[in-house]
Design goal:
Layout lengths: L7 H9 L2 E7 L5 E6 L2 E2 L4 E7 L3 H8 L2 E8 L2 E11 L2 H4 L15 H13 L2 E13 L2
Antiparallel strand pairs: 1-2, 1-5, 3-4, 4-7, 5-6, 6-7
Length: about 140
């Protein structure tokens, strides 16, 4: 399933990209950001995982509005929307595909990340896009 917000060019970019920058709103209204590895399953959402106890997870649970700049080569795709923590039961079947296995991280690191997702130490977020546009 593909979301109409993402055209074929967007989906190809998201499938190849290994670098993105996630922006969210702090409690005081100022912006904060983090480098992230975007995960694309071609199901209308961009995913990422993080530690459940991290400041990032707390910020996103409190205020779900996000911006994501997905960079690959000389192109950058801007995605704005809402971050949703995926329920553990829904997320569990996706865990093996929620880690890059294309040489971006070592097999040991990928296995540890999946194990921490299974244990609930890490959690999975998806971004429900409201807008998608090329920045360059």
């Amino acid at each position: 399933m593909s979301d109409p917000a993402f055209d074929d060019d967007h989906r190809a970019h998201l499938a190849r990209a290994m670098r993105s920058f996630l922006f969210a709103n702090r409690r005081d209204g100022s912006l904060t950001g983090w480098p992230m590895t975007p995960l694309w399953r071609d199901d209308a959402y961009v995913y990422f995982n993080t530690y459940r106890s991290s400041a990032k997870a707390r910020v996103l649970v409190r205020d779900a509005r996000v911006g994501l700049l997905v960079v690959h080569g000389d192109r950058a795709l801007a995605v704005t929307g809402d971050a949703q923590m995926v329920d553990q039961a829904e997320a569990a079947p996706m865990f093996p595909s929620m880690v890059r296995t294309d040489g971006f991280v070592s097999p040991d690191q990928a296995a540890r990340t999946v194990q921490r997702l299974v244990e609930g130490k890490r959690c999975l977020f998806r971004i429900v896009a409201r807008s998608v546009r090329w920045e360059r």
